[in-house]
Structures are given as C-alpha cells and as structure tokens.
Amino acid sequence: MKDFRMYIRFVKPYRGLVAITLLIGMIKFAIPLAVPLFLQYAVDGILLADLTTEDKLSRLLKLIGVSFVLFVAIRYPVEYYRQYFAQLTTSRILYDLRNKLYGHLQRLSLRFYQERKSGEIISRMINDAEQTKAIVETGMMNVWLDVFTLTIALAIMFSMNATLTVFALLILPFYGIAVTRLYKRLRSYSRSRSAALADMQGYLNEHVNGVPVVKSFTLEDYERKQFGKKNGKFLERALALTKWNALTNAIINTLTEIAPLLILLGGGYLVIANKLTVGGFVAFYGYLDRLYAPLRRLVGASTVMTQASASLERVMELLNEEPEIADDKDAKPLPKTAGRIEYRDVVFRYREDNDDVLRHIDLTIEPGQTVAFVGTSGGGKSSLISLLPRFYDVRQGSITIDGHDVSRVTQRSLRERIGLVPQDPLLFSGSVRENILLGRPDADEASLVEAARRANAHDFIQALPNGYDTEIGERGVKLSGGQKQRIAIARVFLKDPAILVLDEATSALDLESEHLIQESLRELSDDRTTLIVAHRLSTITHADRIFVVDGGEIAERGTHEELMRLNGIYARLYNVQNL
Fold first, then answer.
1. In 3D, which of 259, 279, 204, 266 has the Cα closest to residue 234?
2. Which of 42, 36, 44 lies closest to 63 in space, CA to CA?
3. What phi and psi values does residue 44 have, to the nearest 5 degrees?
4. Who is most buried in 12, 145, 285, 561, counting CB within 10 A?
C-alpha cells in the first residue's frame, strides 16, 4: 500500500487526463451495449412483425442508417481518442518516473553501485518501470470502465427479465473462489521472474564488456554454458508463471461457458412458454457477452495488476534506497578555496563489520603544495584520497578544506573544487567535444580548445577523422590509453579546480604516453593543491612532500631526499623500482 501511495504521486499531475480518458471510455463502452437492443428490434419489430415487405425494408434501412452513425461515425473518433489519451497518460507518467529514478540514482553513493550489478539497476528502470503502467492503464482506467459496463449491462438485463439475470449470475460465486485461490501465488511467481530477468541482464552487461577477456582466454564455449544457466533459470521461472496463468485462464473460461448453457435452458423454456419473445431472448443472450466479457477482463486485470504490483515493489525499492552520503541539513556551499587540506585523527572502514582501512591519519597540505601518497597495494592510499571529495564518510576524525569540514558543506560545492584524474579515465560514448565539455558544459569553443592544448591533446584530436566531433565509442574504445587519459586531463583543465587529485594517472601507460601526460600534469598542478597517488616513484620525486602509507597508517613523511636518507620503506621501494 505504501508503494502504491508513492506511485500515486506520479499520477496526480495527470488526473485531468485520467478523467478525460475515463469519460471517453464510458462512451466507448456504452455504444456496444446498444447492439442487443438493435437486434431485439430487428427480430421483433422487423423480421417477425406483421408488416408488408416494403415496410420491413424501410425499417431495416433506417435501422442500418442509425447503426452506421452510432457504430462507425461516432465510435471511430471515440475509439481513437480513448486509446490516444490512455497511452499519452501512461507514457507521461513513465517519463516522470524514469526521470525521478535516474535523478535518484545520481544521488546514491558509490557503495550502492559497488554492491549491485548495473544490469539489475537497468532492468528495474526499464522493464519493471514499464510494467507499472498497468497500474494506471488497467487499475485506474480499464477496471472502472469494466465495472461501468457491468453495471449498465446488469441494469438492462434486470429490466428485460429478472429471472434470467439471476440464472446468469449463478456462476459469480465460483469466479470469486477461483480468483481468491489462484492469484495468491501469482505475486511471488511474478517477482521471481523479474528477479531472474534482472540477474540475466546484469550478467549480460558485465560479460559483454568483458568480451576481450573471454576471447583472449578462449572462453566462448564456457561463457555460452554460463549464460545458458542464467537463461535457463529465467526460462524456468517464466514457465512457472506461464503455467499458473494458463491454469487460471482455463478455469475462468470454463466457468464462463457454463452461463450461456444456463441461459439457453431457461430462455428457451420462456420462449416456448410464450413468456419471452424471440427478439427478447436474442437480445438477452447478446447481453451475456456484455456481462462476461468485462468479468473476464476484470479477472485478467487481477493477473496484470499482480505482475505490475511485483514490478512496482522492485521500482519503489530502488526509489526508497537512501543515499549513504547525504548533505547535512545545515550544509552550506564551500566558498572559493585556497586549497589548505587537513586530515585530523581520521579513522575509516568500508563496513562496520570490517577492519579499519585507515587508522589515526594526521596530515596537513598547504595551498599550492604537491604531495604524493606511496606504498604497497592495499595500504590505504586510494581510500585516503577518496575521503576528500566525500565519496565515503570518515568513521572518526575530520577532513577540512581551508578550515571547512567537508561533511558540513554541500557535496556539489565540495566536488566542484576538486578535479580528479583516475588511472582508468571513464569516457562516454559520444564525441571528443562532449567528453571534454563534461568538465564545464557551458564552456565556449575557445576555452575547450585551450584546455585540449594544455593537455597535449589538441594535435591528436585534430588528426581524428572529424576532429573534436569524432565519435569515440563506448568507454572511448576507439582511442588509445594515452589519448583517453589526455582527454580526461583536458576535462580537468576546463573545470579549473582549486584542488587536483591524480590517482595513479600514468601507471597503465607506455613511456612515450607517460612523458606527454607528465608534461600536462605538471602544468595542470601549477598553483593548485595537488594530491598524487603513484606506484612509479620516479614520477613523484619533485613532490613537496611524500607520505608513505603502510597498513592504513602514515609510516613515513618527508621530501624525496629526506626519505632516501631515512633509508626506510620509501627508500627500499625506490631502489627496487630503479633496479
């Protein structure tokens, strides 16, 4: 019920459209209710009436004329606008829902994405969200229109013959029993099928991106079998849902066919006993379909709504996911900064049940300084710098920029002051221009080109087939590692942040690319507070201060020369790399 109330918030802005659709739908469903009455008139008032042939033909032509106007000239636009407004309403609601979901996903913390498959998230946004439209289309429109049709049909049938109407309704209790018994398991089957589909999509998304690894290890046959297992699991759950739906439909349709037999028996007796005209019997029999067609649709709506409810639960589960990192209610924008950074007694762990990754970190970085963090893998270097833009929150202690605690300022203003160049730069499918403009979307052409020049990227971009408008493919697959890294650096040049974070920005590159990028990074770090995480110690000997992170603690600190004289961890790592 809570999920449904949340969903209603997306429907409210379009309640006017829903009302219009219902009004037009009532006209659409009312028109066919006239058909049996026309048949009664045709049989009793024309075919079996004591009239001349000319009078019968005249009445028949008039009946056909009225029928044409009602069932063709009027019904056509009514049918069109009913479908149009129904689809317009559900499409707009889905548009708002997906926009809300995507905006919510942008607010969620990194841990959320680390613990979930991207394919599962996409499945909830696309497949499950699409299924929820049945709540509006079926639950808020079709169900009420079918109830309206049912009510009018029953009123007409009772007015024609109350006894036969009671006969027609004898089957209804069995309908109720069938719906109650059969639909209990539909919800779990529907949710299970959706979960299996999301799991398969998550696997596909991950392994399509990993095709180079699959091919390099000749794992094609193995991967085919693994996907076959996922696909088979989905098939098994889909068939379980299909079987239950088939059983439900078979029972409901069988029950429905009993009613005409009862009417044939009772109505035939009344005609033989001259208590009902032939036309009246034909008309009443015609209303049986007008009675049981909406009943069948209402039962079918139970199936659709059950499946939609399961999807709605998955969508709202995603929408109810709370961001782990949230702005404090009194958070204020971080003012323009000089770039003085302090870590005070910082303790951090990724999960409450895990060990501390960082323990009692104390360090100060002055404005404009370049500092480097080195050490063995797993020592805590990347964790330490990921706390600065507040990708995670400290467990104890504080981090300040120019005296402002990062947990007390808005995340947006904090991250606007920080430029990050990661080891593996993430580029998006699109053009070179679009990827550089991510640094500052409103930048003009001159600023964009200048940023590319300073990143040593302008020349290779100009050599591309369409220059800055060249499409680079998903994740920049059409570019080399060095080219991708230079575009990522151009992006940061365009952003022009006060603080620069380089997370092993050259460790995966060849020496020629590294030389070009080191030149770019040296210019980028001028007059900025710069934090560097590096494995190649030869690239950070110029740093104003070097911190050796070992076992989650600052084991050593000083300049390159001071640390070499100390002859500790840093000197050992440096000598091993040079050897």
1. 204
2. 42
3. -80, -35
4. 145
Q: What is the pTM of this model?
A: 0.75
| Alpha-carbon dihedral angle through residues 36, 39, 43, 45, given to the nearest 10 degrees | 100
The predicted pLDDT at position 408 comes to 92
Sheet containing 341-348: order of strands: 358-365, 341-348, 396-401, 404-405
pLDDT on residue 401: 93
Helix (H) or strand (E) holding 167: helix 162-169
- Long-range CB contacts (within 8 A, 24+) of 392-396: 392/109, 392/110, 392/111, 392/325, 392/348, 392/350, 393/324, 393/325, 394/346, 394/347, 394/348, 395/347, 395/348, 395/349, 395/356, 396/345, 396/346, 396/347
Q: Decide if 556 contacts 563 (C-beta within 8 A).
A: yes
pLDDT digit string (tens) for 395-434? 999 999 999 999 999 998 998 898 888 877 788 888 889 8
SS3 per residue for 429-474:
CCEHHHHHHHHCCCCCHHHHHHHHHHCCCHHHHHCCCCHHHCECCH
Radius of gyration of the chain (CA): 36
Q: Is 418 exposed, middle or buried (0-12, 13-18, 19+ CB in 10 A)?
A: buried
* AA letter at 424: D
What is the DSSP code string of 21-69?
Answer: HHHHHHHHHHGGGGHHHHHHIIIIIIISSS--HHHHHHHHHHHHHHHHI
Residues 241, 307: Cα–Cα separation, whole Å: 10
Task: Express each pLDDT in 432-444 by its tens digit.
Answer: 898 899 888 888 9
Residues counted in the chain: 579
Residue whose pair of structure tokens reads 């609601």 in the numeric block: 93
* Structure tokens given for 446: 């001159």
Amino acid code (one letter) for 38: F
For the record, the structure tokens of 85 come out as 């407004």
In 3D, which of 434, 348, 453 has the Cα closest to residue 393?
348
The DSSP output letter for 409 is B
Phi, psi of 62 (to 5 degrees): -65, -40
| CA dist list (Å): 131 to 97, 128, 135, 306 | 12, 5, 8, 10
Sign of CA dihedral 24, 29, 30, 31: positive
d(CA 359, CA 198) in angstroms, rounded, equals: 39
In angstroms, the CA 549 to CA 562 distance is 16
For tokens 């709605």, the residue is 312
User: Is pLDDT at 517 greater than 80 in this prediction?
Assistant: no
- Secondary structure of 512-557 in the HEC alphabet? HHHHHHHHHHHHHHCCCEEEEECCCHHHCCCCCEEEEEECCEEEEE
